[in-house]
Amino acid sequence: MAKRDYYDVLGVGKDAGEADIKKAFRQQAKKYHPDVNPDNKEAEARFKEVNEAYEVLSDVQERARYDQFGHEGPGAGGGYGGYEGFGGGFGGFDDIINSFFGGGFSGAGARSTGPQRGGDLQYDLNVTFEDAAFGSTKKITLPRDEACETCAGSGAKPGTSPETCQACKGTGQVRVVQNTPFGRIQNSRTCDACRGAGKIIKEPCPRCNGRGKQRKTRTISFNVPAGIDNGQAVTMRGQGQPGERGGPAGDLFVQISVSPHKLFRRKDADIYCDIPITFSQAALGADIDVPTLSGHVKHHVPEGTQPGTTFRLRGEGITHLRGGGKGDMYIKLNVEVPKRLDDHQKDLLRAFEGTMTGREYAEKKSFFDKVKDAFNN
Length: 377
Description:
Elements: H1 6-10, H2 18-32, H3 41-57, H4 60-69, H5 93-101, E1 121-127, H6 129-134, E2 136-147, E3 163-164, E4 173-180, E5 183-190, E6 199-200, E7 213-224, E8 233-236, E9 252-258, E10 265-267, E11 270-278, H7 279-284, E12 286-292, E13 295-301, E14 310-313, E15 329-336, H8 343-354, H9 362-376
Parallel strand pairs: 1-9, 11-15
Antiparallel strand pairs: 2-7, 3-6, 4-5, 8-9, 10-11, 12-13, 14-15
Helix pairs in contact: 2-3
């Protein structure tokens, strides 16, 4: 396909001055930059075209040559002014764009070529209320990348080794000289030949196809810490994805979900429980069995206990996650009113009620005294 006129590419006339060309280039480069148009092949092609046009029209000698001979004249064909194309990643030129627009573009030229830390993984683990309270050991099965057993992670076929990239001499970077609005500058970009690795694998490992990694499913032990709460996470260092080029492995984050308990509710290290008692137990007092996380304990209900009264059992809560003993347990007593009484039981209650003088009900007496005072005033 025939190349478009460079002036048309930038949208300027042939009499455009240096400032006009620079302004047009900035607008077009920003519009078609790959970071603004990811996976857009048409925008990528236009971006290359804009850069090539600017390389020529920003140079006085190259522009004069182009004005005289056009694309087919002397010096054409491979690109004016040492234009080398972009290859994979638009390296180097991103530094120019960043200087124009205050950063924000992240071309591959900024990619580190040294050791890189592996990615982190997350695992969602459901545990029981008791597991969270006392701690436990669980088995976690997760898929992750691991070093290929055949090539020991090198990516090269056994008996061979990765070779130093001749294009970048093992640095992973190549230098490019370009024309910019500020003159000719020299930048580094990621080597296209080795993609920044500094090494080239000529004979890939047949098992991992040169990746140096294999997808495996591993089962590891995980200690649920006593006192962990719902929504909290535990970090297992070095149990994530393997690093690149000798970098350390990432971490595994185990996200904890605690199943609700049938009897207990939790708030921090304290637990709460509602216990029903009878009218007689509340009125006369009684010793009742109270369920706790560690078993049943006896608790004395004092005579005349009112509905909703809450008692505390010290140290019967949950272990503090960071040490320092245990929380407490709070028991709320709910007095249950009997239903479906027979006639004899009803007669006994009526007789009992007939013996009451009113002094026995402190709350009732206090309430009616308040009513009396309110209406007399």
